[in-house]
Amino acid sequence: MKRTSLGALAMAVAALSLQGCGGDDDDEERLPQLSAATGASLSGTCASLASRLATLADTTITATSEVAAGTLSVAGTPVAAHCLVTGRMFERTSSVDGQSYAIGFEMRLPLAWNGRFFYQANGGIDGNVVTATGGGGGGPLTNALQQGFAVISSDAGHSGAMGPAFGIDPQARLDYGYQAVGKLTPMAKSVIQTAYGKGPDRSYIGGCSNGGRHTMVAMARYADQYDGFLAGAPGFNLPKAAIANIFGAQRYASVATDPADLSTAFTATERTTVANAVLAKCDALDGTTDGLVQDVEACRTAFSLAADVPTCTGARDGSCLSAEQKTAIAPIFSGATTSTGTSFYASFPYDAGIASNGIPFWEFLAPLLLDSGGVGIIWKVPPEPVASFNGPDFALGLDIDQALAGVNATDATYTESAMSFMTPPNPTDLSALKRRGAKVMVYHGVSDPIFSVDDTKAWYDGLRSANGGDAGNFARFYRVPGMAHCSGGPATDQFDMLTPLVAWVEQGQVPQGVTASARGAGNAGGVNAEVPSAWAADRTRPLCPYPQVARYKGSGSIELAENFGCQ
Description:
The protein folds into two domains: 40-237 and 424-566, Alpha/Beta hydrolase fold, catalytic domain (Rossmann fold, 3-Layer(aba) Sandwich); 240-420, no CATH class. It has helices at 2-19, 25-30, 46-52, 170-196, 210-221, 238-253, 268-282, 296-302, 305-308, 323-334, 359-378, 391-396, 400-407, 418-421, 431-435, 453-466, 498-507, and strands spanning 40-41, 59-67, 73-74, 77-78, 82-93, 100-110, 112-113, 116-120, 150-154, 202-208, 228-232, 439-445, 475-480, 514-517, 540-543, 550-552, 564-566. The chain starts with a helix and ends with a strand. The protein is α/β, with parallel strands linked by helices.
């Protein structure tokens, strides 16, 4: 009886703490509290694990080996000893393109396990089995493996050596989109059961970019399989985002002084001029001038590209933009449209990170070299011929309306459209996840040039609307001012969101502001060269749950998070 009473008291306290964050109190009280994971030790030796896993269905274990403590390290901290398991699932030869396919994977199993499983969703177009460590968000600070999770990483069903050509095979498309997660998850849990004598008590999935997309898709499709979801810069509308990036490239091409180099349309000096103009209008809106635009919403009305950036009266010299440049660039930020002016992807906010080092790749090269292959081969129905495909020519000559039709099309061979297999079905209906007590944390750089933070904001606003105006009792969204795609930019981009996610899922501790730091000189996790010289090398800021904004309290060092509050 005493144990029951204490449990009831803990639930009541958790409910009251949730009520303090706003929302539907009755709904919050009904959300179940999941129990905490308990650890275990690896059963037997790592070497013997291969034979014990031989009966896994549709799976070939290729190797097992013990990795000594300190072989891997994160942010200067060594990772403990663990067992590395590699393998393949569903090996086959395609009847469409004749190529060999399999879902390659690796799992890292700590000798001293914390009872948790982490699915590491990878970025780009997948295709490579990267080291299964499981990130915690932003610049490297900690990861799941370091914290004692069992972690899996995969190539999502195809070899990176193929490039986008795997899109010719319809099953490879589906594995990349969502089915690899569905196939790997039960297999991984079986491996854990065999390795430790029990399955995972709690399961988590996370990643950034395409990994964030995988996580968003899993929220909708595999809500029963995971207890915590950590999505960074989630390109959950990836086909549309890629077409929007090509839309931008076509506009840059119209004002590029060198047709072979789109960066001449908007040079580094010109981007710095725009960044400085944004800061002049928006930096102080959060109560202090510190090189960061915290109040993103206020900046939308405070800054105008047309009025606040000088218009060149003569030759371009970096201190101004020509009228033609402004005409070409403005639609990229206001949001890509069809030929009839209908918006099909989100706007991008103006932010100080517009001058960051990642912009040239994502805005001037990716549309020609990456997005073109995705739009033309991986997602289009029917796909473009691989042998004669030319990415830059395809992108710069692309009919945007036809491209949108292509990613929504199906035929007898490709029976599921890209917008079906790449995106989460009903993304704002996370009722299944919510009802079972699972939790979601999402972060996104305000200066992300490829996946718009406004797209994620629109999703979260929809999620709030679907939950009586407040989804904060099970899902939280954090914008990172200045941060580019997943990390970098003039930002405090080093933070750990995995630890607060676990505390929320397993202990009911609702996350508030997450402390982020700059990666200046001497940072153990790797220096971010874009940290402004005027900042302290270890500047900190709270990342606030949207719609809250980090505002200066009026006194104290502007280098310290403690002097800012989420309001």
